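Budget justification, computational time. The allocation requested in the original proposal was used primarily to generate structure tokens for proteins on the priority list. As evidence of use, we reproduce two of the resulting records. The first is shown immediately below.
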Amino acid sequence: MTLGTVSMLHPSLAAMVDAIRAKMSREALHSRFSASAVSFMQRCVEFVLKQRVNAMTVIDSHLLNHFKCIKIFDSTSWDIDPLLRSVLPGCGGDASSANCKVQLCYEYLRGALSFFEVVPGKNPDSGYAKKLPDHIASGDLLIADLGYFRLETLMRTIKCGAYFVLRFLVGTTLLDAMTMQEIDLRRILQKVTGTAYQMNVVMGSKEQTRVNCRLICLRVDEKIAEQRRRKLRQNAEKKGRTVSEMHLYMAGWILMVTNVPCEWLPPEMVRPLYGLRWQIELLFKQLKSVLTIHRSATGKEHRLRCEILGKLIVAILIHRIHADVNIDLWNTKGQEISMDKLYKRIQERAFILMGLLCRSLSGAMLFLTQELNRLMKNCRKLNQKSRPTTLQALDRQITCQAVEDLDISTLT
């Protein structure tokens, strides 16, 4: 069956949709979005998440092979109808009174979405961070943004035998791992002449939540540092505050903390490894630009949740397709599939696929299989020596230009 032949189904599909509309009023359709419908959609998501995750092959990379799973946590949020402010409240003030946030986990080695939760937009990531250890196991690597920095979370991560790579929260108490004396980080970095510095530290003033780890400091370009300082001042001015000299100075450094052994993760590889976090940012981009998860005209909670869950199911399925092909292509040929291109190509064929599903599941699967074989040739990432992909950078053990030729200073 060719794409041109399938496209002739458009008129019949349009007629089918018209017939459905004639038999069911808008009010009748709307009434079907109930608490039971939300429960059903949640079970559907759970079912899809469980399929084949454990049986899937994993990305083969020397640096990443030390970990059983690499779990990247992040969130995305958007404003919704103000009528929903009682169930999904926003931050209020200059921000929206109603806001929806989705907490998501992306398992990088298998390319799978493994966990998510819909929460009110006003809930900070730092508060949600306490739940993260419940979703990691021994041998896993946790990667998260600065908003998830929480000493209790890192301590529990270490206790369960897992690892973490996070940005350091400036202002957190630092103790020398040998002497247990408090460290003046700014004074130490002012004496560093190289582009990077690492030391073994203990984070936290309270003994019950102290965390032993490595602190890795990477100097950034002065232009980038000035941009950061300008942004800090602008944000502080909006809130009627003044930026501390400490924060202004630290804008000239990338500060990372990790408990991964140095022999597994040398300082020059911390930044590209943390760069894996951008994979979940790409996912959020596709969720909004292609699946339009942030667009909803309803002021009813149950309908909103059903719409979000339905779009997440589509995202899970697309990522499963991407993972199957991408992992095999990387492990055999050292090439990758662009997630962005795949989302857009599937979107172009979504209407045809829906028409085939209405007729026959086997016909839809046959079409999808044939189309995917064609699509993968057009969705491959281009090999550019000047702009290696994240996996290429990790596999070749190269770093960004900002940390080339590192002069590593280590405190013993």
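The second record produced under the same allocation is shown here.
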Amino acid sequence: MPMRTTITALSVSALVFATGCSNWGGAGKGIGPIGSGAPRPTPEPADLVRYMNREAAKVRTLSCQDLDIDVKDKGILVPTVHGNMMCQKPRNFRLTGKAAGSPQLDFGSNDEQFWFWVKQGAPYLFHCKYTEFEKGVDMPFPFQPEWVVQALGMAEYGDVANYRVESKGNTIDLIEDSVLQGKPIKKITKFNADVVAAPKSQVLGYSMVDAAGKVICTATVNEVRQVQTADGEWATYPRKVMLDWPQDQMRLELTLDKVTLNQVLPAEQSARLFTRPNWPSIQNYDLARRVQVSPSSRVQPAGGYSQR
């Protein structure tokens, strides 16, 4: 598989697990019950932002011990990758995966930096500090770190003034103007206008669109589950998510099982889990400095990375 499509698909799959919220639960005006015939005026941005923030507040950590990633690259199915994932607000994230018992990928982040490694891509463990990323660096995939917890349904939405709403009949879009790698984009959260319950999702998906209206990537929530969190509250997580990168002709189906919400992580375990690995046989590649560091710590400038 070409490196760019491999990294695009697998890395962003780790970073854009979208969520759905099973019950509208009084998000505000404008949503009539299913089959009620009630008028459905367009809700205000404040209604939708309040709803998302209320649902996000229920989940502080998400641990998945049984994750399947089915990949279709240019119409060709790739063998399923099996893995596990842990996300802890605000930026702690780790996903690892294997195929036939062999490690295939490692994606992670902490408050300072993010990193990713794909076996079928270039022989590097790529990494970048958030401060450098925000300045704009050459990235091999469309990745915005803050979107990790947002797409997981764990992030709080910001100032209502930054959002607008568009009603599209059976769906409602909450739109935020944002920036990706210094370029303007739109982040869209799509809602079902009717009240639904698990396994159907109230949040149908997420997408990023560039200034020209071209879709960068989408995440469609096909199934959700409700579980009781470690502190006794009921919350929702996405069980089946379809991720699509139209420009790369890449599509992934993610299935999350054995999920625990709000698991308490001891400080020592958290520090170990969310620290960039240092493998003796794999070079590190600093995306901001465009520098490779060999396993022997020999630093060398890099003119670029291989696309295969």
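A brief technical remark on that second record: The chain has five helices and 16 strands.
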